[in-house]
Amino acid sequence: MPLIEAKNLSKSYGAIRAAHAVSFTVDRGEVVGFLGPNGAGKSTTMKMLTGHLRADEGAAIIAGFDVADQAVQAKQHLGYSPEGAPAYGEMTVREFLRFAADLRGLSDPAESVRKTLALCRLDEVAAQTIDTLSKGYRMRVGFAQAVLHDPEVLILDEPTDGLDPNQKFEVRRILKEMAARKAVIVSTHILEEVGELCTRVIVIAKGEVRCDESRDKFLARGPDLNAVFRQLTA
Amino acid sequence: MSSSAPTSSPGLKPFTAMLRREFAGYFRTPLAYVFLAVFNAFAVSLAFFVGGLYESGIASLDRFFLYHPWLWAFLAPAAGARLWAEERRQGTIELLLTWPITV
Fold it and tell me: What is the model's pTM?
């Protein structure tokens, strides 16, 4: 059974068609790179998968649960970090993670927070309020919130956006560490990340899936990924 | 299933966590005191000046409570609407809507 299943997801905002019949599945152990120009429908598709937006048509299944009909069960198996990693700025990192752990009803919230702080290397800023953190740390807090409950499904919207090369490396390291046990979707518009991080690539443009293939096949399309990308999304 | 499954039913835990956070949030800024002061001023002045508590000559708080529904009709939405607006502004509404809790 695939852990993530998108079945004909469609969404329109008035006359604007943000996503049209988007279908794909993601199995355990896969890290799918979600590529597409800005405004292509990446975030809209992710929001439908995570239950933030209700799809006009189609269904999103997380770990066997429909996110519309069995929302709570589906969301228990899901970790999601929205674009820009929003968080409550007036809380400290530890307070925020503890709050998330309590809201999720985890059996041992204190232990989950401790493990996650260590995993994401957030120990040294745990007592700082999130507003005072640098962008790199803030993105990591968003990431920490998503992996707090060790979910089977991880959906990350531009987790490396605005990070410096060292911080990007760090996020990729953590992702690789846990990728084997999970189904992961990572959206990005940095093509170089595909080779380093992903096992599969889905290209979306104008709300439609333009390409869905393994990383090796995608990389074999040509030496200049930017040209390949332009051609696919034209 | 993996360790992501919570223990049986979370019960009231998410609710109390949310309540604690919002309550503490109010007292982190002077906002809570502003609301308390406004409530106090209006509750008392409505009873005395509009309700005529003294002039009535009756030892009853009826006139005090008479105006409370009206006071709350304005203060409760003012406090609540701000919370939703703040969630939207910070983008954290997206977290709330994708965490396994119900509205």
Answer: 0.86
